Amino acid sequence: MKTIFKIMMLFCCAFTFAQTTVKGKVVDNNGIPLAGANILVVGTTTGAITDFDGNYTLVVNQDPPFSIQISSVGFDTVTKEVTTNPQTIDVTMIEGTSLDEVVISASRTPERIFESPVTVERFGLKEIKNTASADFYGGLEDLKGVDVNTNSLTFKSINTRGFATFANTRFMQLVDGMDNSTPALNFPIGNLVGMTETDVLSVELLPGASSALYGANAFNGILFMRSKNPFDHQGISGYIKKGITSQESAGDNDYTDLGFRAAYKFSDKFAAKINFGYLKGTDWAATSEVDNDMVGGTRANNLNYNGINVYGDEVSANIRGLAGGAGIVPDVSVSRTGYNERDLTNYNAESIKADWGLYYRPIEGNSLELSYVGKVGTGSTIYQGTNRYNINGFFQEQHKLEVRNDNFFLRGYVVADKAGDSYDMVFTGININRAWKSDEQWFGEYINTYVAQTLGGATDAQAHAAARAQAESGRFEPGSPEFQAAFERSIDDPDLTTGSKFQDASKYYHADGNYNFSHLTDFANIQVGGSFRRYSLNSGGTIYTDTDGPINYSEFGIYTQIQKEFDLNETMELKLTGSVRYDKSEFFDGFFSPRLSAGLTVNQNHNIRASVQTGFRNPTTQDLFIGLDAGRAILVGAAPDNLERYVRDYSISAAGQALGIPASVTQTGAAAYNNSYTLSSVLALQESGNPAALEIGNPSLVEPEQVISFEAGYRGKFDKLIVDFSAYYNKYKDFISQEVVISPLYGTVGDGSLSVAAIANGDSQAYSTYTNSDADVNSYGASLGLSTKVFNGFDLGGSYTFTKQDFDQAANPDFMTNFNTPEHKFKATFGHTDLFKNFGFNIAYRFSDDYFWEATFGEGVVPEFHVLDAQINYRVPSLKSSFKAGATNLTGDEYFTAFGTGFIGSMYYVSWTINNL
User: What is the chain's mean pLDDT, rounded?
Assistant: First the structure.
């Protein structure tokens, strides 16, 4: 027994001798504890993190001496020597500047923002905690050069450098390396199914083209969101926000946002985490009754009224044409009476999301890590695309396997979605109307009543009023049982001739990898990498022409980058970066995307940079394979095998049948590209009556778009003043956009006879095609950011951004670039993280110049707006908690960022965050 006891004591002593304990406290230069600071044993992956009081304990299976490195976002890194066991090391961190923060996205390798070869913006833990916005994603609005267009309360679209739409396929959003775009729509839907705030480590944003490293969709910019690794950030944290949203149209409504994170390091080899987030509120109601058909039009003064947020009045016809040309019937277009959007949705805004991760480091002291991450999310929001859609119960999931270390990563993931109970509100209005009276009956009653009233001596206005009253008899009124029954039938029916359901179960599979050779050679930092993606479109024919089964196609890319630093003298350093990427889609020839950049650092406080790069983007899944009747026009993708897959039968007018045309004809999507007139020329014909005004459309099939981007910039420190300036010029080739054309249902365009008669008789169909412009499209702009500390510790920052498009719209009347960006923007922030002990505040102001919004749903001027957000916060270290009270749009002046959306009101909230280091 004594022998066994001695052996056990020997093992214990040996085990104890092998461990070194280091503990201490980390504070800032004001003596305030720093929570979440990282303590890392130099040369290993062993580390610890400070708690809410700034305390840490580090146990190392290593004998002294060795070094530890202490780092925290916004502070200069400190290195300390461990010489005894145990040892107490207290550290005072000196606050750095934003230029000292480390980013990864610009070159796929860690480097200071100050030394980045291109423009990059960063939103870290400090900014997340101090943002005056209701959540971190909304706080991105305050970044220099960033545009955030608000689709709805839970769907914000981020963009940089112009050409903004809610269907923003020019901008990428990556979450821990995974593309966050939805397979069905091919673009990100904000943070609806994204990250939980307590798990966000940092957000980086690259404005402009980045195709040389990130591929075809990195055209306007990329947003990178990185989460906390459970090896480095452990424990349970959470938050809850309660408040109200306030809007003139929707009133005051409750707002709730909560989330939690749990992470645990089971050993030096295994760690795991789980996150959950829930948001519930009421969306910004869209109630505009502005007429799309006529300036100043209303239902009272325009027979063909088409209200922006009124649906069903898109159904319109020339009543003389329907009457077979009878002279007593006026040659005017009349629209059916629609339903207001507020009668077709409950404006529920909701988001439920969860993710989890398992992380394994098999080799002690080595950075090799294997991980599995799963993400699921569901939510309800409003999306404005070609029409307005109620995205109800939308579901998206992502699953990723990754292996990585300090020199490489290899990952593969799948992204899949389901549309849930989503529906098109425009077609809901149209088909509720058709449920109580068909279009044929409605217009027939209108014409017959008009003729009878006119023959009875009524004036034109009186006859039209009586005709509409008769045609409207039997209308389902909102709130009635008949209306509700027709509404339910419509949103459960995916056939757009009778219903409005939006269904989809698409997915894509993606793999990418990167290897950095810097540990093998001192000559330069050399990287190689590549990616592969396979799409599987499956909408059952409701979005794409996939009635007969899923549409599958793939694309791949490979790239390399070389980065070399030169010490020119004691005060000047030069960094040169060159990269090139080759991408290939199975539908198009391959493209090379090179990038060259140079950065010159002078006296460690000034950096001048310049770059030239090319970018390209492949046509999206919708550009290629959509086949969707949007009411105003039929959207037909331009993939060669897509044109004949869209098939539809059309009824021919009495006038057309008199020419010998059958009562019904069949037309495919190929007519849009092979037998069409330009929209502007058809409008000119209607106005002048001169057939010579017609111009052949026949747009070419879409090809990849290219851009050459020139950029120059400066970053520098002048004592306490930080300056960040950049300017760019973009030159586009084969610019992708949509062009509306009119295809006659009989005759051949240019024949001067039968096709002209088809247009005159209303026997035609509008198509929205996907094509490239041969016109010159250019854009240019500049941004200036200034930040400093004033009045003994107050943070003051501001930025100005200028953005301009160079495009001759008058010479290209049928081509929309969708620039949709203000020429002038100004932003400013003012605050203090510790105005007095544990108390801070922040104020953010934004100004946007007015700009013209153009999109298929509608177009018009977005007036200038001024927005003021503010928050105060108080930390209670004993509870490991922080409390915040804030308001967005504090002045209450409602505004909108896109034509047709709801006006953005104010939000007032209080929040409690616990243990979020």
Answer: 91
Provide the angle, in degrees to the nearest 10, between the axes of the packed helices 481-491 and 425-436. Answer: 130
What is the model's pLDDT at position 386? 87
**pLDDT on residue 105:** 62
CA dist 379 to 281, 507, 695, Å?
11, 18, 46
- Is-contact 709 729, C-beta < 8 A? yes
Q: 406-442: per-residue pLDDT in tens? A: 899 999 999 999 999 999 999 999 999 999 999 999 9
* Residue 242 CA neighbour count, 13 Å, CB half: 1
233-290 tens-digit pLDDT: 999 999 999 999 999 999 999 999 999 999 999 998 999 999 999 999 999 999 999 9
Q: Around Cβ 679, how many Cβ atoms within 10 Å?
A: 20
**CA nearest 342: which of 403, 390, 386?**
390
Strands (E), 568-704: 572-585, 591-602, 606-617, 627-629, 634-636, 647-651, 664-668, 677-678
At 99, is the secondary structure helix, strand, or coil? helix
Burial 515-532 (b: 16+ CB within 10 A, else e): ebeeeeeeebbbbebbbe
Q: Which residues pair with 333 in a beta bridge?
A: 318
Specify whether the CB–CB gap between 834 and 865 falls below 8 A: no
3-state secondary structure 431-468: HHHHHHCCHHHHHHHHHHHHHHHHHCCCCHHHHHHHHH
Three-state SS letters, 816-828: CCCCCCCCEEEEE
Residue 16 has pLDDT above 50, yes or no: no
Instruction: Tell me which residue has tokens 């070194």.
Output: 20
Q: Is the peptide bond before 86 cis (omega within 30 degrees of 0)?
A: yes
For residue 65, cis peptide bond before it (omega within 30 degrees of 0): yes
Tokens 């896109």, residue?
898
- The tens digit of pLDDT for each residue in 202-226 reads 898 989 888 777 877 788 889 999 9
How far is residue 434's CA from residue 442's CA, in Å, rounded to a whole number? 9
In this prediction, residue 107 has a pLDDT band, given cuts at 50, 70 and 90, of low
**Residue whose pair of structure tokens reads 């490489």 in the numeric block:** 408
> Pairing mode, if any, of strands 865-876 and 881-888?
antiparallel
**In what helix (H) or strand (E) does residue 840 lie, and over which residues does it extend?**
strand 839-848
CA–CA dist 338, 229 (Å, integer): 52
- Reported as a single tens digit per residue, the pLDDT across 432-491 is 999 999 999 999 999 999 999 999 999 999 999 999 999 999 999 999 999 999 999 999
Q: Looking at residues 524-544, what average pLDDT do you find?
A: 94
Q: What is the 3-state secondary structure (H, E, C) of 20-89?
A: EEEEEEEEECCCCECCCCEEEECCCCCEEECCCCCEEEEEECCCCCEEEEEECCCECCEEEEECCCCEEC
pLDDT at 115 > cutoff 80:
no
CB 707 within 8 A of CB 616: yes
Question: What count of other Cβ atoms lies within 10 Å of the Cβ of residue 208?
Answer: 24
Question: Phi and psi of 77, rounded to 5°?
Answer: -70, 140
Decide if 561 contacts 245 (C-beta within 8 A). no
Q: What is the C-alpha to C-alpha distance for residues 556 and 146, in angstroms, rounded to an integer?
A: 29
Mean pLDDT of 706-711: 94
Separation of alpha carbons 299 and 545, rounded Å: 36
Read off the DSSP letter of residue 329.
S
Q: Are 743 and 667 in contact (CB under 8 A)?
A: yes
At residue 15, the pLDDT reads: 38
Helix %, strand %, coil % of the chain (to 5): 15, 45, 40
66-88: b or e for each residue (b if 16 or more CB lie within 10 Å)? bebebbbbbbeebebebeeeebe
3-class secondary structure, 224? strand
